[in-house]
Design brief:
InterPro entries: Chalcone_isomerase, Chalcone_isomerase_3-sand, Chalcone_isomerase_sf. By secondary structure, the chain is an alpha+beta fold. The chain has a single domain (29-193), classed as Chalcone isomerase (3-Layer(bba) Sandwich), CATH 3.50.70.10. 39% of the residues lie in helices and 34% in strands. It has a seven-stranded antiparallel β-sheet. It has a two-stranded antiparallel sheet with strand order 1-2.
């Protein structure tokens, strides 16, 4: 084998390895939105538990991914987890902050008892004020909703922190119930986030 042939073979093998590595890095493809199979929150490695598409009528609203320290199909186990957690939303259409906030409140009210809503009232108001900080979400925007132990619920939009952390874990669990509760925002999205679909 000539030196040129050897070089070409090595280049080809390197290309194949890179392609395999790139494929392995993404655990899920949701309508063209790729979710990495791992991410890091508060210095901890989280695994993609599941990902899916939020639809409203016939429209694609956003792709969502749920990251946990350990994969599980059980909602109760997710609510009891001590470590960091993350919900990632990648917008697939433009939505105003008012509409997004309204959808958030609808989901929260549908999946929380009166006592739970009373307990997290101040945190909910604080969270609502965050929506007023930006005019809306655009297609392609990435929103992370993180639970960071010792800090609280941390929101970042396109890598930039929005507002102050919301400290109560009960609030973060109420947020998770928007997608994982008994009356989820999208009944087709819930099993995907739980890793049950497919």
């Amino acid at each position: 084998m000539t030196a040129t042939s050897t070089f070409r073979l090595k280049a080809l093998l390197a290309g194949v390895c890179l392609a395999v590595a790139a494929t392995a890095a993404h655990a899920a493809d949701v309508a063209g939105i790729k979710f990495d199979d791992t991410t890091k929150v508060a210095g901890k490695d989280l695994k993609l538990n599941g990902a899916g598409l939020r639809k409203k009528l016939m429209f694609k609203v956003y792709a969502a991914g749920l990251y946990l320290t350990d994969k599980t199909h059980n909602v109760a186990d997710i609510m009891k987890m001590d470590g960091p957690r993350r919900v990632t939303l990648v917008m697939m259409r433009e939505i105003s902050s008012e509409d997004f906030g309204q959808a958030f409140m609808t989901g929260l009210n549908a999946n929380s008892t009166k006592e739970e809503k009373t307990k997290i009232l101040n945190q909910t108001m604080q969270f609502g004020e965050m929506f007023a900080m930006f005019p809306g979400l655009k297609k392609g925007d990435t929103l992370h909703l993180d639970w960071v132990p010792g800090t609280g619920t941390v929101v970042t939009l396109n890598g930039k922190k929005v507002g102050d952390a919301v400290p109560d874990v009960a609030f973060y669990n109420a947020v998770l119930k928007i997608w994982l509760g008994e009356h989820p925002a999208d009944s087709g999205l819930k099993p995907n986030l739980l890793g049950e679909a497919g």
